[in-house]
């Protein structure tokens, strides 16, 4: 499998925010989100081949039992289940961060952290926008992930107009626990995060959904490897 980077960090988002974790970033993503803060990991060639055993050796130096498998889009790589099995056998709590357009059955996963991509993610370049929009949402796969794994749904909110799109998507899904739904500000820098946090806080107060932190942006201002 192709690994872009591995480092020790605090989980930045969702219900486990603040948890010391080993982050394993896989290379390759079929989407090209306009505001993506890890574009360097999008090409399938943006990394080095590693075996699950090599990855376990590297993260064994970190004082944590939590692993974040992210990307890119980690579920796009065929060998990802082998890594997840190795992490499970090593006694790691595994969070998978996915956009929810790929599905693997019966993979080891303690938390499926799903961030469905709204239209606010569409890139400005028309050549990128068309394939991105065609692939960014798959409600059938989202439903299977929700039905078969412990999950959280994290929505990147840019403007209040995103709420109608979120509501439409949630209405199309069955058995969504509202306490597992998080809104978080669209931001790539600390200044942008602080600017939009008040808006998202107001939206969460109005709708009753939880607001997710984005600690990696707040603390490290988008610095790579943090």
Physical arrangement of strands within the biggest beta sheet: 3-1-2-4-5-6-7-8-9
CATH level-4 homologous superfamily: Aldolase class I
The total beta strand count reads 9
Distance N to C terminus: 22 Å
Helix content: 25-40%
The shape, in one word, is globular
State the CATH class: Alpha Beta
The total domain count is 1
| Radius of gyration, whole Å | 17 Å
- Low-confidence runs (pLDDT<50, min 5 residues)? none
Summarize the main sheet.
9 strands, mixed
- What is the residue-mean pLDDT, rounded to a whole number? 97
- Count every helix, treating DSSP H or I runs of 4 or more residues as helices: 7
Structure class: alpha/beta
What does this structure look like?
The chain is an alpha/beta fold. The chain has one domain (2-183): Aldolase class I (TIM Barrel, Alpha-Beta Barrel). Helices cover 32% and strands 21% of the residues. It has 7 helices and 9 strands; from the N terminus they run E-E-E-H-E-H-E-E-H-H-E-H-E-H-E-H. It has helices spanning 52-59, 80-89, 126-135, 139-148, 162-172, 190-207, 215-220, and strands spanning 2-10, 20-26, 48-49, 66-70, 93-98, 111-114, 151-157, 181-185, 210-211. Strands 3-1-2-4-5-6-7-8-9 form a 9-stranded mixed beta sheet. Helix 6 links the parallel strand 8 (181-185) and strand 9. Helix 1 packs across helix 2. The radius of gyration is 17 Å and the shape is globular. The two termini are 22 Å apart. The model has no long low-confidence stretch (mean pLDDT 97).
């Amino acid at each position: 499998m192709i690994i872009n980077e591995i480092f020790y960090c605090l989980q930045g988002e969702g219900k486990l925010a603040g948890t010391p974790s080993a982050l394993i970033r896989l290379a390759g993503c079929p989407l090209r989100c306009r505001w993506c803060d890890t574009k360097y990991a999008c090409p399938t060639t943006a990394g080095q081949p590693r075996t699950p055993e090599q990855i376990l050796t590297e993260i064994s130096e970190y004082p944590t039992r939590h692993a974040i498998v992210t990307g890119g889009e980690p579920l796009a790589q065929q060998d990802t289940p082998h890594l997840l099995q190795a992490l499970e056998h090593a006694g790691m709590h595994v969070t998978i961060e996915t956009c929810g357009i790929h599905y693997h059955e019966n993979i080891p996963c303690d938390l499926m952290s799903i961030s469905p991509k709204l239209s606010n993610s569409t890139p400005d370049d028309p050549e990128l926008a068309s394939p991105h929009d065609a692939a960014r949402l798959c409600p059938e796969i989202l439903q299977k992930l929700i039905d078969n794994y412990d999950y959280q749904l994290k929505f990147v909110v840019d403007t209040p107009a995103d709420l109608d799109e979120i509501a439409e998507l949630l209405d199309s899904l069955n058995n969504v626990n509202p306490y597992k739904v998080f809104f978080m500000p669209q931001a790539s820098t600390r200044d942008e995060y602080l600017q939009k946090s008040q808006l998202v806080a107001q939206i969460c107060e109005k709708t009753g959904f939880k607001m997710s932190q984005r600690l990696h942006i707040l603390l490290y201002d988008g610095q790579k490897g943090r």
